[in-house]
Amino acid sequence: MRNHRGFFYVFFIVVTVSVSDYDSPMKSKRSPSLPKLIGVIHLPPLPGSPEASDLHPFQALQEAGLWAVQEARQLAKSGFDGIILENFGDAPFYKTQVKPETIAAMSVIAAAVRETCKLPIGINVLRNDAFSALAIAAVTGANFIRVNVLSGVTATDQGLIEGQAADLMRERIRLNAQSVQILADVHVKHAKSLSSSNLAIAIEETAGRGGADGIIISGDTTGRAPDLAVIQEALAAAKHVGVPVYLGSGSTPELMPTFPSELRIIVGSTLRKNGMPGAPLDAKRIKTFMNSVKKSKSKTKGKGKSTRNGKARRATS
Predict the structure, then answer these.
(1) Which sequence spans correspond to the domains of the chain?
(2) Which fold has domain 34-299?
(3) What gap in Å lies between CA 165 and CA 173, rounded to an integer?
(4) How far is CA 309 from the centre of its chain?
(5) Which of 132, 146, 217, 293 makes the best surface tag, with the fewest CB within 10 Å?
(6) In whole angstroms, what is the distance from residue 206 CA to residue 224 CA?
């Protein structure tokens, strides 16, 4: 394990030197603007997960930490507006509450990424541990979290999951972490909503009644995009409640020019070797994707601004 000591050494030296000068988002309850282009860091198996069973917990953390820091730097250099960390390598996932070692590992990794990358950082604790994600974000200075099921009831590959918006919003206040914004999936991938099959109503309930600061839509599974008609419907519904819409799957260089300019992007698999989720980032694929983003921006320049990330919305009755 001697080869892995560098991660902790650099991490603690950087934190010790910079913590007094760090301008944490927790110093203000005012929410910063949400990033428009978010790159996903698929963390390797963390301590306690089946795929890390042959590693000492310390070694698993070291390897995941180095992976995350290196990928964060690469995404920042490539021009992304934000990044999100998720425990992708921990499959099969717990439904709503991960083990303490997962929370500990993601907290250390998030803090290390925060000190080496100045982009807005998000946390996603799979499958749907919103409370751990919020706690991690609060103590590490991360900017937002992703919640797969915030509102309603959803049948997933982990079983039935019920949204806990009421408890999560109150927990955010209790932690004095109102600056941590919440991106919530609607009709999340690898699942089926049992509450509302109407996408517009589901968006109104998740943002207008559930309190989400942004909405995420996706295809049926990882790497698949929804139809353009679905995207247009989501944008119209989200505009009604004053929140931005993110595409959470299926963003490829080929499809980017077809997307509306106000649609925001969360992308992971497309940037990786052979387009495989969990694989290492591929510099050539990243360059190709970013070129498609630039071309899309040049085509839509001057056609209007994206949906405002506002707070002036009312709960629908």
Answers:
(1) 34-299
(2) TIM Barrel (3.20.20)
(3) 13
(4) 16
(5) 293
(6) 22
